[in-house]
Amino acid sequence: MKAAIYNPYLDTLGGGERYTIAVATTLEKLGYKVEIQWPNPEIGPKIEKRFGIKLKNVNFVEDIKRGDSYDVCFWVSDGSIPALKSRKNFLHFQIPFTHVNGITLLNKMKLFRIKKIICNSYFTKRFIDYEYGVESVVLYPPVDTKNIKPKHKENLILSVARFSQLTQSKNQHILIESFKKLYNRGLKTWRLVLAGGVEVGAKEYVEGLKKIIKDYPITILESPSFAEIKDLYGRARIFWSAVGLGENEETNPKKVEHFGITIVESMAAGAVPIATALGGHKEIIKHGLNGVLFKSEKGLEDVTKNLVEEKKVMETISKNAIIESKKYSYENFEKEFSSLL
User: Fold this and answer.
1) CA distances for 194 relative to 217, 218, 236, angstroms
2) 27-59 pLDDT, tens per residue?
C-alpha cells in the first residue's frame, strides 16, 4: 500500500508541519509506504531533529502527481481545492481561509473526489465550512505527552513559537516588553526564554529582538532541537503565548492561533499556559482551571504576577494541565485518523 502527502509549508517546520509528519508516521504504522512531495530530501534530518520523530518507511519525492497511483493522499491546502486522484483523498486545512471564492461549481466537482476534509480545530472548521460550503471533521494535532514531562521547576517563563512574520506574528517583542516590566516590578529571580524556528522569514525580526533584550535575563534560542525544547518545557513554571494579540479573530482569523500545539506541550510538562483569549487557545485552555487567558499586555502582566504570588494556585493549575494534556496524545490521534481511513 502506498500513501502520498503534500504540504506546501513543510520547510517552516511549525505546528502544521508536525501535524503532517504525524499523519506520515501513522500511515507508516498502518503498513503504508509513505512518500512526501518535497524537492530536497535533506529536509528529512531537519524534521527528525526539530520534532524528535524518526522517519523510517518515509521518502521525499519530486512529485506525488496529486495522488495518482496511490491508495491514500493527504493534502494540506493553501486555500485552493486540488483535483486529487488517489483511492482515498483527505484534504487538510490548518488555516481558516476566508474570501477565497470557495463555493464554485469547479470546487464542488473537485470535492466530490475527497473522502474527508479535516481541520485542526473547531475554530478553523467554523470558517472552512462557511467558506467552502462543506461539513469538515476536526482532528486535533497530537502531542508527545509520553516524553514531555515535568522536571525540577525553575523560575522560568518559556515561549516556543516560530520567529517568522509570515502568516501570523507570534509577538515575541510584546513578551519581551512585558517581561521587562514584570522584572522591574519585582520578578528579579525569574528569566524568560524565547525559543523557535528561524528558517523562513525571521532574520530581521530576530536581530531586532536581540537589541531590546540587553541587561535583562532573556534568552533567544534559535531553531532548537526537540531535545532542547523538551528540557525547557520540563523546567519552566510558566508558558507564554501572545499570538494574535490586538487582532480581530472574526475579521482576520488567519492572524490568531488556529490551535496551539505548544500550549498543549507546555501543559504536558506542567508549565502553566498563559495565552491570548483568541482562536484555538480557547478550545484548549479552561480559564483558571488548566491555564489562564488574557486580552491585553497589562492583562498578561497582571495574571503572571498574580500566579507567581499565589503558588498554591499555580500548583493546582499545573496538575490540571498535565491531566488535560493527555487527550491530545499520539495514541488518540492515531486511533482517530485510522477510523477516518
Assistant:
1) 11, 8, 12
2) 999 999 999 999 999 999 999 998 888 898 899
Q: Are residues 112 and 173 in the same domain?
A: no
- Domain of residue 124, residue span: 2-139
Question: Are 307 and 240 in contact, with CB atoms under 8 Å apart?
Answer: no
Q: Are residues 135 and 160 in the same domain?
A: no
Q: Letter for the amino acid at 149? A: K
Predicted confidence (pLDDT) per residue in 194-203, tens digit: 999 887 777 8
| Predicted model pTM | 0.94
Cell of 313: 494556585
Q: Is residue 333 part of a domain?
A: no
Cell numbers given for 190: 525569574
116 C-beta neighbours (distance < 10 Å), count: 17
How far CA 200 is from CA of 14, 149, 163, 196, in Å, comes to 10, 29, 8, 11
H helix count then E strand count, the chain? 12, 13
Cell numbers at residue 42, please?
A: 535533506
